[in-house]
């Protein structure tokens, strides 16, 4: 059973930084892409960043240059370093994992992912 546990959310002022972590268990972490999504109240869950099993990274345009996704396969953990946070970044952040290994297509689509964490709240005050 795949389990994903996020941590690291919180309240931060605009311009500040946070690092989210997602610890995975239940299968060989290094073989799978991982994604970060976010959902603000009243809005659809949207793609933020993804990292392939080989380390290729993908970002939505609004976070490019501010957020960095990385992975530590030895710790089965994926990270989202968020800098220059803005109030519009306020949302619940979810990490996600696909059902199949070595996936490199459609990693920006939430339909690709079967496994989701419980989410961690990020609130950015102006």
Can you describe this structure?
The protein has 126 residues and is mostly beta strands. 0% of the residues lie in helices and 47% in strands. The chain is built from no helices and eleven strands. The chain has strands at residues 3-7, 10-13, 18-25, 34-39, 46-51, 57-59, 67-72, 77-82, 91-97, 115-116, 120-125. Strands 2, 4, 5, 6, 9, 10 and 11 form a seven-stranded mixed beta sheet that branches. Strands 1-3-8-7 form a four-stranded antiparallel beta sheet, with no helix packed on it. The radius of gyration is 13 Å and the shape is globular. The mean pLDDT is 96.
Helix content range of the residues, please? under 10%
Specify the structural class. mainly beta
Taken from the alpha-carbon principal axes, the silhouette is globular
Could you tell me how far the N terminus lies from the C terminus, measured between alpha carbons in angstroms? 40 Å
Give a quick account of the main beta sheet: strands, pairing sense, barrel closure: 7 strands, mixed
Helices, by number, come to 0
Could you give the order of the helices and strands? EEEEEEEEEEE
Mean pLDDT: 96
- Beta-strand level of the residues, as a percent range? over 45%
Uncertain spans: none
Please outline the helices and strands:
Blueprint: E1 3-7, E2 10-13, E3 18-25, E4 34-39, E5 46-51, E6 57-59, E7 67-72, E8 77-82, E9 91-97, E10 115-116, E11 120-125
Parallel strand pairs: 2-11
Antiparallel strand pairs: 1-3, 3-8, 4-5, 4-9, 5-6, 7-8, 9-10, 9-11
